[in-house]
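Data deposition worksheet. Section B asks for the primary sequence of the deposited chain exactly as it was used as input, without tags or linkers unless they were present during the calculation. Section C holds the resulting structure in token form. Section D is free text for depositor observations; keep each observation to a single sentence. Incomplete worksheets are returned to the depositor.
Section A, Depositor: J.P.
Section B:
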Amino acid sequence: MNLLTRALIPSLVAGAIFAQTPAKPALANPVIGNPAIDKPALERFIRRLKLVTPQVAVKIGDPKPSTLAGLLQVPVVLSFNQVTQEMVFYVSRDGRRIVEGNIYEIARNPFQREVDIIRTDRQPSFGAPVGAPITLVLFSDFQCPQCRVEAKSLREHLPGEFAKEVRIVFKDLPLEQIHPWSRPAAIAGRAVFRLAGPAFWDYHDWIFEHQSEITAENFQPKFTEWAKTKSLDLVQLSRVIDTHALDAEVDGQIAEARKLGISSTPTLFLNGRKLSGSVDWPTLSSIIKADLGFINK
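Section C:
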């Protein structure tokens, strides 16, 4: 599910791709030798480059020095209905040229930036212990049908094929604009993890198995009934949830996802390598084996 894409598609179909902006030079009136850029011109260029329609806001950040001589690093944030996507562009100092892409150091993991952003400590996990050759991080939404498919595949196949090589870490990314009970479900899961640790995975499996039966109206009573079957302390669970102590945790994971440029679920990161959408097990197994081959060389 991708809200930014949803915002773009109707205008594309209607033919209003560029918001009827008259053609102008890509970056007019550059400031030579000064780390300032023509932000309106850069916005026009990015809107055209990325087919960004008027209802999507574009915020151009201030330029910063980059690791490449002669290029300034410029952060750009696209936002629509509280959903954001962060991007980075590199602009020449004279403001005439723009570069899109990543800067890599050959001696380092090509996905080190992503690894550095993702927090894996104190998160629900299963599989191999901390320090395993591969850490597979999953950003998921309990109300997302594709996430249900991905979750079932991982739970069925990963322990059997890569029990000693792969540790999987679960991260919440509720897309609450289109999934009304995804955030309450994320907070409830955090509460279970905080109070009962491994019981989180029972909750994870239960909620995906019964996803089609759950609504925004019946989530709370269904969650309470499930908690009773696990002999969880309902008073403690309610206390943790009602104080909103876990909202900040969920918000932090949403912010983390934005830094990583995630706008849809499920999204996997295999040792930092981004894999968007539900990945079928044969394909994911092949990618894991390939990555293990690079690690073991």
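Section D:
Confidence is low (pLDDT under 50) at residues 5-33.
The two ends are 37 Å apart (CA to CA).
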